[in-house]
Amino acid sequence: MKKIFLTALVATALTASAQTQFVTSGRVEYEKKINQHKMVEDAAENNVWMQTMLKAYPKTLTDVYELRFNQDKSAYKLAKENSDNKYIMWGTKPTETDVTLQDMQTGNTSTQREVFENTYVIKDSLRNLEWRITDETRTIAGFECRKAVTRICDSVYVVAFYTDQIPVSSGPETFGGLPGLILGLAVPRLYTTWFATKLELSEPTATQLNPVQKGKKLNWAQLYAELRKGMKDWGKEAEKRLWIISL
Question: I need a surface site. Which of 81, 104, 153, 178 has the fewest CB within 10 A?
Fold first, then answer.
């Protein structure tokens, strides 16, 4: 009887040990979805041309992105563009050269981004977001994730789901700053979501985490100032474009 009890105890301990194993490097694929009809709904209300476009263009845009990461760094970029996509609004079409690098060790980030046919390399510190972690959980790509919420651009609500089974403080686009990797993200005001569909256990190469970036170098504040000057007559539309760029 004592032997049976001891065997069961050892088995339980091994199971518990396996359940607490952490992933510290790999490649995550995210499915990014945009409801582009909702994004232009207001503009289309009294615009016959725009209403015609809504009938001809797909409601939902779907593309695949990848995040390669280790404990210190991450690189996020387009993995596969959907050839069936047709884009109504500027800023929603993915660009193969756009890439966001996060260095969790130094606290710095570098983002190459194409904006209005200009290419920028935005070098700055990692986003300092005030996350509020909740008790809500959901399973994404086989990982239990906890919900956290924050705001960007003062008023744009962001929902994230992160897993502490991957203790890497990064995520899609320029988001991070949580106790684990973000596997799910939603920006309701931009009708856009990112959800991980699979994880590959692999060690990224130095080249994958440090690709060459080319473009006009500035920080986020300088970019916003430059873009606001160019969009000064755009009204409310200018703010929406800045929200898209801010992701």
Answer: 153
Task: Name the DSSP letter for residue 83.
Answer: T
Residue 126, CB-side half-sphere exposure with 13 Å CA sphere: 20
Give domain status of residue 186, yes or no: yes
- Does residue 167 have a pLDDT over 70? yes
Return the closest-CA partner of residue 158 out of 64, 77, 246: 246
Q: 135 lies in which domain range?
A: 21-246
Identity of the amino acid at 189: R
Residue 5 is assigned to a structural domain of this protein: no
- Of 83, 116, 123, whose CA–CA distance to 99 is shortest? 123
Q: Which residue has the tokens 């060790």?
A: 105
Q: Tell me the CATH number at 240.
A: 2.50.20
3-state secondary structure of 232: coil
Rounded to whole angstroms, the Cα distance separating 2 from 114 reads: 68
- Which residue in 24, 26, 53 sits closest to 37, CA to CA? 53
33-81 confidence digits (pLDDT tens): 999 988 887 666 777 777 777 888 889 999 999 999 999 999 999 998 8
Indicate the pTM of the whole model: 0.87
- Average of per-residue pLDDT values in the chain: 88
H-type helices in the chain, by residue range?
2-19, 36-39, 41-44, 48-56, 206-209, 220-230, 236-246
Tally the domains of the chain: 1
Per-residue pLDDT tens over the stretch 77-104: 999 888 888 888 766 788 899 999 999 9
